[in-house]
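#struct-help
A.M.: can someone run this one for me? Single chain, 702 residues.
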Amino acid sequence: MLPDVHRTVDAAWKLESAKIVASLTRMVRDVGLAEELAQDALVAALEQWPVSGVPDNPGAWLTTTAKRRALDHLRRSQRLERKQEQLAHELGQRQDRQQGPEARPDDEPDDVLRLVFLSCHPVLPTEARAALTLRLLGGLTAEEIARAFLVTETVITQRVAGAKRTLAEERVPFELPDGDHLAERLSSVLEVIYLIFNEGYSATSGDDLMRPGLCLEALRLGRLLAELAPREPEVHGLVALMEIQASRAAARTGPSGEPVPLHEQNRGRWDQLLIRRGFTAMLRARGCLVDGESGGAPGPYMLQAAIAVCHAQARSAQDTDWAQIASLYEALARVLPTPIVRLNRAVAVGMAHGPDAGLALIDTLLTDPVLRDYHLLPSVRGDLLTRLGRDDEARVEFRRAASLARNAAERAFLERRADELGAAAPQGPLLGRAADEFLGRDDLDAATSRSYGQTLRRLRRTLGDQQPLSSLTADQVARVFTTAWGGAAAATWNRHRSAVRSFGAWASLDDLTAGLDRRTGTGSAARPLDPAQLDAVWSLPDLPLREETLWRLLHESAAGVTAVLALNVEDLDLDDRRARAQSGSGAGSDIDPGSGAGSGSGEGSRSRSPTRSRDTWVSWRSGTARLLPRLLAGRTRGPVFLSDRRPGPARTPEASDLCPDTGRRRLSYERAEYLFKQATRPLDPARDGYTLRRLKPAPRDR
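D.P.: on it. Structure tokens below:
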């Protein structure tokens, strides 16, 4: 019974959350607060429905409960009287409009549409607008939004939190724009509506290929927007595109939920009503284009809709006018020259002019950083290689695409494509297995293994675990480096280069770094953060206790990052506010532990030997003293700073790097640096994020 109730709550929330948040935003005029109140209603449902039973109308129950909490909040804030006056004033204005010459039967626009325009307000950066709208209206998690934008989950979390904070600080009104403001914000609204549709049409994660509810919501929003802006050709173009794509929904999956490629779909299952609606929307878009002021040049959504029309007009896959589609993609690439558009153009060219032509275009995208973990790139490449009869290469590409796919249905489909090509002929060791054996050697300590592992994970992710070692070339490695670390600092570049050299020497391969010159660093010290920058760091919202403690300790002690991360609980003297730094930990330096892992000519050696033979002390002030006891939480042994997870059985660290109480390992330099950069990226004008070394105060401030 209980699991059924939870499923009902989840289903009701996905259907109603956007409407609830929108309705609450109109009441409290704060989108962040509105989302919190809506979440309170969700928690109430999870607590009460298992006992009282599921109400007849779950959505209405959630909405009513959320609104009651909103009224309670207004009463507590002593703002109810003013809010009632404001609502009464707005009601009077609405009645005046309804009695005017341009009155409409329903002059109250959809609250959800208001929420879209609020999320896309110009006060927010473009990326934040899209992320916030997907979060509030699509109900997507930060991970799913990150997949749509091809960025990290942390970036999306920061964008959403920052966007809600900005809307509240700027007191952005919950209303629909008009006149020039409407045109100004329209393109961003179109973008996020289409992203919502795409998440429903081809889910980025989970077990199912599609999330139909999101498609329907995006269509509803698009149709409402077309009513609001009836003279905008791109609005009708987007509606046409979504209608025609949605018409294929029933034919896109097989009996077991597996994806069915477009050329294999049963076109008799395509929804002809949606196709006709799409054609009608396209005619409206063309009419607006002729009557408008854009000079007759179609925008990106109209061009994509024209491509969809070409597919819908073909009675069979063989009748598809691929030459016309390739021409449309060429025009689209001029208007919207994104890597995804260029990838789709390569598919069309491959169909119109042969797989060799498509493959040539695909190979120009292999070094594009945006596509480096995009599963459709190796998937398309595998398809073209199959058509050329290069089955062994295609099998590797399909396996790599499957490893990158986050959606279970897509992953199974790609694995099946690889299996259909038959078993690979014996080709000797494969990259994935060889990398595991290399990292599992007894003569590698934990720090060196971590450093090498970072490099080899990127190599495996880009080239695929099924890549035969015998076919691994310096050109392939150079392409990986250009894509992944082209803009990296000299120390980072050289560290990864040394790791590849070590691996190649161990595997008896030719020099895999032949095309990679060693970089020379500037040798300049990291510039300490100034007081204003430090204040911004300490004021970051929702700082995890571990990160705040580490950052405070680094700043107050002026010790090296390596020394602080090497501290053990038993080394601490909390009363005297100091700790004994272990020999060789480099307490006075900030050497990246990975930089010494084979960074010279002695590839394959253990990490650097101790640089000091005597102990030193790390001391701190009140800020760290306040945080440390909370961080330790009664622990008496093991590393002070622990990672978030326990290590897997295949990656057991040394006993000195394990906490005997929790089983978690010592926090690595690389992870600590990554988290600091991600957290401080919004504070850095260059948007790169600060490094931990910049927490060390200037000599005069110590």
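A.M.: thanks! The two ends are 63 Å apart (CA to CA).
D.P.: also worth noting: Residues 350 and 356 are 7 Å apart (CA to CA).
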